[in-house]
Amino acid sequence: MTAVMEKADAQPKTGEIPSFDVTIKVRRFNPEGDAAGESYWDEFHITAYGTDRVLDALHKIKWEHDGSLTFRRSCAHGVCGSDAMRINGRNRLACKTLLKDVNPGKPILVEPIKGLPVVKDLVVDMEPFFASYREIMPFLITTGNEPTKERIQSAEQRERFDDTTKCILCAACTSSCPVFWTDGQYFGPAAIVNAHRFIFDSRDEGAQQRLEILNDKEGVWRCRTTFNCTEACPRGIEVTKAIQEVKRAMITRAF
Amino acid sequence: MITHQYDVVIVGAGGAGMRAALESSKEARTAVISKLYPTRSHTGAAQGGMCASLANVEEDNWEWHTFDTVKGGDYLVDQDAAEIMAKEAIDAVFDLERMGLPFNRTPEGRIDQRRFGGHTRNHGEAAVRRACYAADRTGHMILQTLYQNCVKQDVEFFNEFYVLDLITDRDLATEDVEEGAEVNATGVVAYDLATGEIHVFQAKAIVFATGGAGKIFKTTSNAHTLTGDGMALAYRRGLPLEDMEFFQFHPTGLAGLGILLSEAARGEGGILRNADGERFMERYAPTIKDLAPRDIVARSMANEVREGRGAGPNKDYVLLDLTHLEPAHIDAKLPDITEFARTYLGIEPYTEPVPVYPTAHYAMGGVPTNVAGEVLRNGHDVVKGLYAAGEVACVSVHGSNRLGTNSLLDINVFGKRSGRSAAAYAKTASFIDLPENPAAMVEAQLTELRERPDGERIADIRRALQETMDANAQVFRTGESLNQALSDIRELRKRYRGASVQDKGKMFNTDLLEAVELGFLLDIAEVTVVGALNRKESRGGHYREDYPDRDDANYMQHTMAYRRPTAAADEADGHIAGYFDHVEEFDGYKVVLGSKTVTQTRYEPMERKY
């Protein structure tokens, strides 16, 4: 199976993975050096294979063409949330997006996610994003004595918030939200998703406090239901639905 | 240079680091230094579960769990540590549940449990349901829950800081420090990726929780960032590494990519088949078949391929068959891994079997510790104020082969113990003065790398390293293949000294850090191969085709590998005379192998059959 990383020979052999050429246009930004502070498009031509992801293409550029190309990545299979970026105008994880699926006949455009300050190339400052997350009290709040064993929770109660436990804090949703782009104070979808995860957890007793936080002028009511977040979520979380459920809970105080 | 002072500094913010932080930050002023945002750590990639003998769904007890762990590790497990882990597993799971972890539930609302490889009822009778889980994202939920609780407890993090040196008051790498003498850990040197600034952290206690080193191999389930940093830093400072020749190859990596598909797929009923559709594990492990421990399944798969029964156009993988399972069951229990098959290979697991092949997964070895998490500098002396937990450490609960789910357990049990030990020690200890310029070595190293004139690319050397490790030190090893790997590594070390980085900037220079990480990988690969060459037997994850049997008479010992100056004595500290004395000379230093006794309590070594 080593064929994945090898150069294609002129004559394809049995079982060999076919290759194709692709152009990647990357939005670059360097905070220091000759072009400090300028943002510009940089173009690279590489040979790729059918199973290659956008992350593989970025690595190929960094490792074979330009070592200064900068991006975050870690697990490379869509669970750590490091490499959310705008690919052909849509927020995705680079490690979960196959080149063959993003129209490789034309140049593939790769940009940093929007609404957060760019640090270098595809790296943005995630601190404002995590600050919003921390504000909604993303932890189980309980009162009374701890049980000696586990708390009891039915499979149905567990299912109620299953979808929002999948969040990997990649910021693909929040940085796809037009409200967040124009108003960085807005909590954003990811923080609300993580509030949802606790508000609807039968073991939690902090829902009222979280709802008060999100009832703020920068809270859930800023959501315009554009569904960008749901489309952007690489974990398939129904983000907009979760936000709607939090809005409803705020009115009915039932959760 | 910026300096900080904390009672406890924890290096690494995965499961072990954050579990330690939750303990120590209650008692002592604690900083967590991590090269990633905590939620990016690779604990989050663990899927299947965390074993504890809760007996929520069928009869079980911690003694059976201990036995399975010892047998699974082919008797190289320290049995006192395994017993502690199996006993404390129960509270570790309840701790997580009380912190908010959303475990799957039984119809009664208790924590549900499922089967996992090597975990059995009554000493091997049949598979037992012992793994507590949250769908197939148990590690994700553990990482999130621990991070959430760190937020709740206001734990202080230094994110995207790379620790590049460990400071001790005696230099074990160059001095000949006698046995029994006091050695203290006094701080660490870190590099802030965002700014390029050097930070020195003085601490009374330091916990290493930096994870594994899977990137010494090409085909691996590990993240790009798992480059053995903590192991290599300790090793360079003269501390031994224990049992590094034992590396686990997880049977079911997505073929060609190495992406992990949880053993839970087999725990939920999935079957491995060869090209003929045969359930070949019936031949290798007649009792528990597909749920045999990972070393056995991985070897069986590789053997099927070698004997020409592999599937696919190149006959180079086998098939994981889930097609007989109900789609609803797959969706409920294995949603993530089936999506991996769809996303990366375009395979629909409802109807098609998934191509799989072993993938480098887990280092059983690491920085030696005792059960309190204290780091050992030889067979018995601890380094005061230095602790390690998780994959970076070797306590040793995994012996020569870790059972599935026992790593999530390890990070919780020994993460907690290390955090507690570190905080308790910090309360009684005082700060020890750092050397005059503690960051000198790191600054020189980085400057040299940055200013080196144009040379070979770091990525080319790393690829060559990973390729030789895959070809020569993987599931099957021989003296010849390992010697080949070792001579390749020696050559790559020379090339590394002439390699250069292209990014010369200060801010967010990942090119520079990849170069530093390659240095760690070379050290870890080298010590892994030297250990494997010396161990002329087959045990657990280490299989020598030229020595296919386990040899308890000569090798029922932990390997302790030390890097020493060429001029130093050849005898390893605390070594036990015998077959283990082995010295491998390199350019400017040598690797000296000693041994450490395996702690045996209840279980006499037996032949390992499943």
3D structure, described in words:
The complex is a heterodimer of chains A (255) and B (610). Chain A has helices at 54-65, 127-135, 155-160, 178-182, 189-199, 207-214, 228-232, 239-252, and strands spanning 19-29, 39-49, 84-87, 90-93, 108-111, 118-120, 123-124. Chain A is an alpha+beta fold and 255 residues long. Chain A has two domains: 19-124, Roll (Ubiquitin-like (UB roll)), CATH 3.10.20; 127-254, Alpha-helical ferredoxin (Fumarate Reductase Iron-sulfur Protein, Chain B, domain 2, Orthogonal Bundle), CATH 1.10.1060. In chain A, the strands form two sheets. In chain A, strands 2-1-5-3-4 form a five-stranded mixed beta sheet, covered by helices on one side. The radius of gyration of chain A is 21 Å and the shape is elongated. Chain B has 610 residues and is α+β, with helices and mostly antiparallel strands. In chain B, the strands form five sheets. In chain B, strands 1, 2, 6, 7, 8, 9, 16 and 17 form an eight-stranded mixed beta sheet that branches. Chain B has a four-stranded antiparallel beta sheet with strand order 10-19-21-20. In chain B, strands 11-14-13-12 form a four-stranded antiparallel beta sheet. In chain B, a hairpin with a 4-residue loop joins strand 4 and strand 5. Chain B starts with a strand and ends in a 13-residue tail after the last strand. Chains A and B meet through helix 1 and helix 3 of A and helix 3, helix 4, helix 10 and helix 13 of B. Chain A: Its cofactor is [2Fe-2S] cluster; [4Fe-4S] cluster; [3Fe-4S] cluster.
